[in-house]
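JOB MANIFEST
job_type = single_chain_structure
chain_count = 1
residues = 341
[input]
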Amino acid sequence: MSVEQMQPAATVHEEEDSFYQDIELLQNHGINVADIKKLKTAGICTVRGIQMVTKKKLCNIKGLSEAKVDKMKEAVLKICGASAGFCTALQQSLNRRNVFRLTTGSMELNKLLGGGLESMAITEVFGEFRTGKTQLAHTLCVTTQLPGERGYTGGKVIYIDTENTFRPDRLRPIADRFNLDQEAVLDNVLYSRAYTSEQQMELLDFVCAKFHEEPGIFKLLVVDSVMALFRVDFSGRGELAERQQSLAQMLSKLQKISEEYNVAVLITNQMTSDPGATMSFQADPKKPIGGNIIAHASTTRISLRKGRGELRIAKIYDSPDLPESEATFAITSGGLDDAKD
């Protein structure tokens, strides 16, 4: 009986090993250490990471010639073997067993999200000011550290702040609510403040390095808010195409990080008033900014709006697997909680 009980644990460990194939494996296939180091400085730390980057981008890394890049791509194909091409839906279903969900602090909101915030996916939360976007982010900084269902053991958080709205002391009462040590909770959250959209992009390379340094330790990446700096750095219609391209690259990087390291990514987004909406008799003239680029990049989109007092209403705006419905939650001193009747 005990041997049978031990087996699943071993297979989970093997799955984790195959999940993070370190880039050092390329050494066995004739790639030298100096070139591997160059890849790491560019934020590529796993074998899957090389598959996620185009040849052109690899050639742009200083010191990598086209011949070297071709050799690397061949080496990756050798390492991945059969897993490099197609797999059946059944195999993909088994691969997705690694996906975990993070509790939001509110049972109603968890139910709306199908159990919580999903890993290997980008969850976008948008709404006007004062609808609870940053409060959700702060609550998740604490709840991510709680052990959860299906053997989830809790983990660390990286928080990228673009609007100067992160308050570490806000985490203390939330930690008290879940009976966690305040100092330990704060110690498990890595915080960075971004001032330009370029810096925001560069921080993601640091995030990759950190996730690679401590594989399986980090479980959540928060970007609050994803669009604020793009709104400032690019102005007017003339720079719109360039802005959307930079934004697309950033979101693509976030998606790759979430799949490569099996983490949940939460991004918050702002709203804009559509001045032409009054003419077309739309029910709600406000819409999330970032256009179709963000709409297609986000896996799940949640819209938040104000209710009475401290109540907020969350609605599934777009999701590949969740039905469109609503949930009401309250913002308390202990973070997000269910609404009390």
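[summary]
The chain has 15 helices and 13 strands.
The radius of gyration is 21 Å.
exit_status = 0
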